[in-house]
Amino acid sequence: MQIKNPLKSKTFAEFKKFINKGNLVDLAVAVILGAAFSAIVTSLVNDIIMPLINAAAGKSLADLVWVVPNGQPHYLADGSVNPQAIVLSYGNFIQAVINFLIIAVILFVIVKAYLKVSGGFRNKYFGFTKEEYKQFRMQGKTKNDIKLLADKRDEEAAKQAELDQIEKEKNSAESILKDIREILKSKSANGSSKTSKSA
Fold this sequence. Notes:
The chain has helices at residues 10-20, 24-57, 90-124, 130-138, 143-198, and strands spanning 66-68, 86-88. By secondary structure, the chain is mainly α. Helix content is 73%, strand content 3%. The chain is extended, with a radius of gyration of 33 Å. Strands 1-2 form a two-stranded antiparallel sheet. α2 crosses α3.
């Protein structure tokens, strides 16, 4: 009995194709870095910022509760929480909102800094890559010439985007008209068949 090589099987070939599809490695790196960044932000919020907020409030936000008056006390005689008491822990909700706002501000600052840095590189090379920019300079083009090329490129890209949008709308309108014609045609065919049957 001949043993097949699992590396040459169809399943392995499909798995290899799946692994190589798109930027799976980049996605995995992003997920790992995102998890590490989440741990840093969570520690910043829970271990540094929230204790300061609790100190300013004079108590932990988790202690802010409202007991719904239903005839049951919040605590039993032995000091344990009464399971039959209806307690609304609005302090936890406030803390979750504060956590969200702090994380949103941190992400906003990081994204803004990234866009500023990437925008600086874009302006430095007028949207061309570093290699393209060097090639233009080696051809004797001045910075002003390269800027004019960039303006022309952006203008052509904007025109092409506008033409693509017009073509898309045109195709959409033609598709709708085609559907209407098909419906009218089918109704007309049904009407003529009914007329022939009645005759």
